[in-house]
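User: Round two. Same drill as before: sequence, then structure, for each protein.

Assistant: Same drill it is. First protein:
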Amino acid sequence: MGWWARFRGRELPERTIAPTEEGGALRDGKKHGVWIDKGQEGWVTGWMESIYRDGVRHGPFRYWHVTGFVLERGTFVDGAKEGEGQFFDKEGRRFAITHWRAGKWHGAYTHFKDDGTIDYEREYRDGNVYSGPYDLKSVHGDWYSWRKTYKDGHPIGVWEENDFKGRPKLRRTYDDDGVLDGAWSDHHEDGAVKLAGAYAKGARAGVWEWKAKDGALIARCDYGGDGVWAMPDGTKLDARDDEDLARWIALADAMRSQRVQTAIDAWPEDDRERAVAWVEAKVGAHKYTVGIGAWLGALIDRDGDPRCRLIGGISTDHGIFRAAHVPRMVAHAHAMRVLSFYEEDFEGGVAALFPPDVAWPKLEKLSIYECGGLGAIVRTLAAA
């Protein structure tokens, strides 16, 4: 009787429409017999219609898609999927046969076309693809999320990964032994090439380039030459490994998009000096105005944080400055171009920022609004 057959004396009832969630019998307080449980199989929400034996699924099952058709049929043995399983589309056509062992795909997997002929085959072992193509198409079948091929448990050939619109995300090339060998590229969100080059037997080879979304070159490295990444103006990037390289990529991009603070904050604290020194050399006098946040916190609460060297202005609104913060701010008077305060409560008064023996040689903009009495500071500025 196939999928509707008896299994150790038990069977599923015939159904022509999807069931709703419903309980079954209990024996000694445990599920026993046919139950329908709402849940999720993989990424699909639906109803699992299965047979329990003393609280454990054991026997044939049907998994109903949330829209009302049978998506999967198979068998549970002692709570785990076992043996052959079949998958169906909403028209009732079988599109795949797989095999399970102890709840994991194990053995042959066959995918079918709409006309019932074989589309492709691959093999699984313990839940992982072991050999054959592993392609995942979009819901409408008009593009691939990824296209991959395995041999003896490792990747071979060209691997492609795409985003939800079919735009390229990553391209890799492997030899028959699963070693990177050939063209490699990483892509921006819009599909434009970001990082591209080639591997030769697992090592980067030849010229590699980073590019912005508009195609502009950010940096280049000749792994057949000095192996050092450099920007078009000759600026060297001291990249130590791939993770470090990614941080340099983000930092170089941030120099173009004005997101430097976020890019530097992503560096490990004990290695941030390299990033700060590089940005400091690039921006020169054009330093950053900061508000309440990590960088201002570093300025007023910490000694020796290299990010403080990149702060050229402060702009805050309703922050609270303790008395201990004032001398720390004053200590950076030589670098400040902007001071903008709104409803701040300076202990000792806002005039404490301008002691008579401290100069603010680069100050270009000063805005103080509702921060207490200004008589003393007016006299100080008038004298200056």
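Second protein:
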Amino acid sequence: MKEAEKLSLLVIGLGSIGKRHVRNLHALGIEDITVVRRANVFPEEPDLPVFAIQTNLDAALERKPDAVIIASPTSLHLEQSIAAARAGCHILVEKPISHSLDGIETLRELVEQNQLVFQTAFQFRFHPVLRQIKELIAQQTIGTIISAHVHWGEYLPAWHPWEDYRQGYSARQDLGGGVVLTLSHPFDYMRWLIGEINSVSAIVAKLSNLEIDVEDTAMITFRFENGAVGSIYLDYIERPSQHR
């Protein structure tokens, strides 16, 4: 394993989360950071520690980075992950891996063949409260889990008030948006906490007057393999937002 200051990292996408990744990498002592973004314009923040900016992914991968962080719109995740895996790079991709299952097996095979580390950024698994809950469940401190519910409501136009919410990936079908994919963290941490799911039903709809072409409301119910039942409610319209 290389020391942090000797690692070469490629970050794909320089929106709000891409910039956060760059700053975190720099804080970890990584200085060789290349960014691929749509336009070859240096970010407004002059202190953003970027080694080089590319508009061509293939050219950036030719530099043989040790790892790639994919922070682009959802619809691009799988294609870019496959390209990075073919180049032999370890990968961290923002959730979800894709808006479609087409190509997932190709990615899995490349990761296994090249013995790569691949992770989806479901960071709630590292939240101290959820980790404590996980420990309590494992120790059977709180008894048998019978049911679980997650409520997560956000007001989409307030996420990035400096941007037109209608143009963001969360609001656009062609970019893999919609509340189910964008607010997908509960699907991961519910499975992590309680177990695999063997049946699912859902109602998804566009119910508000937001100018988007994806669902803004979803109610999903499921049954875990251990017999417990669960539900997740998601929306883009709640003010003030809450996640519980």
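DSSP finds seven helices and eleven strands in the chain.

User: Perfect.
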